[in-house]
């Protein structure tokens, strides 16, 4: 197992898995955090809930082959462990006039903590930006932006995104068609 590895460098890495920033935020090394073991019934529950979170407890229990009490306890445990998050309903962006998906790579002017935090606060404040990933490679961030049309995107890019003081440049890619989209995590 990883925690019994004899190399001292790994012991230092394990010790750095979680830490507190000067502002009190707790941070972690991401994938190195504890992974919850799930059994066959948990796996079935997660699959059903990812397909339709509006199922009644009785319907869930029937589909996974467990009692309603067992399903309720398992769901609460999965929530407590952070495996299951909030309940949402998926909205069809096209029907609301937001059918243009743009992937925008962003390069920062500097990688200082102040610039990064400022940019990430900016991203969090903008409804048009529906996903943001910190990236390895030539670009610093990848944004997924939903807009009404090319003109709407041009305005957002030129007058909002590229005017942020931490951004050096960006590169945009328009999705021609959505071939696959899912929120389901592979089990």
- Helical coverage, percent range: 25-40%
Query: CATH architecture of one domain, please?
Result: 2-Layer Sandwich
Discrete helix count: 6
Shape: elongated
The CATH class of one domain turns out to be Alpha Beta
Number of strands: 6
Q: Rg to the nearest angstrom?
A: 21 Å
**How many angstroms separate the termini?**
22 Å
Mean pLDDT: 87
Strand order, sheet with most strands: 4-5-3-6
Q: How large is the share of residues in beta strands?
A: 15-25%
Counting helices, strands and paired strands, the structural category is alpha+beta
Structural overview:
The chain has 187 residues and is of the alpha+beta class. Among the domains are: 40-80, Arc Repressor Mutant, subunit A (Orthogonal Bundle), CATH 1.10.10; 94-174, 2-Layer Sandwich (Alpha-Beta Plaits), CATH 3.30.70.920. It is 35% helix and 19% strand. It is built from six helices and six strands; from the N terminus they run αββαααβαββαβ. The strands form two sheets. It has a four-stranded antiparallel β-sheet with strand order 4-5-3-6. A two-stranded antiparallel ribbon has the order 1-2. α2 packs across α3 (57-64) and α3 (57-64) packs across α4 (68-80). The longest helix has 13 residues, at 68-80. The chain is elongated, with a radius of gyration of 21 Å.
């Amino acid at each position: 197992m990883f925690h019994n590895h004899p190399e001292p460098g790994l012991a230092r890495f394990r010790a750095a898995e979680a830490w507190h920033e000067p502002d009190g935020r707790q941070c972690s090394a991401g994938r190195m955090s504890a992974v919850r073991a799930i059994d066959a019934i948990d796996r079935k529950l997660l699959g059903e809930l990812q397909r339709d979170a509006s199922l009644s407890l009785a319907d869930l229990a029937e589909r996974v082959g467990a009692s309603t009490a067992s399903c309720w306890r398992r769901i609460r445990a999965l929530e407590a462990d952070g495996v299951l998050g909030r309940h949402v309903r998926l909205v069809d962006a096209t029907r609301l006039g937001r059918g243009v998906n743009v992937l925008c790579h962003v390069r920062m002017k500097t990688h200082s903590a102040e610039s990064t935090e400022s940019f990430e606060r900016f991203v969090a404040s903008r409804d048009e930006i529906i996903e943001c990933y910190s990236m390895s490679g030539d670009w610093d961030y990848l944004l997924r932006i939903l807009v009404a049309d090319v003109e709407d995107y041009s305005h957002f890019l030129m007058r909002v995104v590229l005017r942020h003081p931490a951004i050096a440049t960006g590169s945009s890619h328009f999705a021609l068609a959505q071939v696959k989209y899912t929120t389901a995590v592979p089990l």
